[in-house]
Amino acid sequence: MTPPLDPEDEDYRPRLIRSYTITAGRTAATVDLAMEATLRLQPGAEAPVLTPSAAQVLEVCDRRSVAEVSALTKMPIGVTRVLLGDLIDQGLIRIQATITEKTSTDERLELIERTLRGLRNY
Questions:
Q1: What does pTM read for this prediction?
Q2: Is the pLDDT of residue 16 over 80?
């Protein structure tokens, strides 16, 4: 387990921008996104001009869960969901079907393990 960051450490940089500024005051995504939902880039989709935060999310989201994207971008999960919802609405990414009624136990365990790996890398 990683120890908490020390404010004197160089890696510790408090967020200078409030979360509601990044999402233009929105607190809910336009798409219902579970933390374990896996995201995929849409091939051939042309990205419009994105905010730096949305571009950062887009850069790391392929083949990762919502929780992993949140951890890798060091953004709160709510902010990540809002930004991902925007990217889905723009057709830049899609949600990959992960668990259905027909999903095997092995597939469910693999998804859980992948999500845990992403969170541990945070």
A1: 0.64
A2: no
Supply the pLDDT for residue 13.
Answer: 57
Domain spans of the chain, in order of start:
19-121
Torsion, Cα 2 55 108 43, to 10 degrees, reads -150
**SS3 per residue for 1-29:** CCCCCCCCCCCCCCCCCCHHHHCCCCCCC
Whether the predicted pLDDT of 48 surpasses 60: yes
Taking Cα atoms as reference points, which of 57, 60, 65 lies closest to residue 39? 65
Segment 84-110, tens digit of pLDDT: 999 999 999 998 866 778 888 988 888
Nearest C-alpha neighbor of 118 from the set 47, 84, 80, 70: 70
The CATH architecture that domain 19-121 belongs to is Orthogonal Bundle (1.10)
State how far the Cα of 84 lies from the Cα of 96, in Å rounded to an integer: 13
SS (H, E, C) 58-117: HHHCCCEEHHHHHHHHCCCHHHHHHHHHHHHHCCCEEEECCCCCCCCHHHHHHHHHHHHH
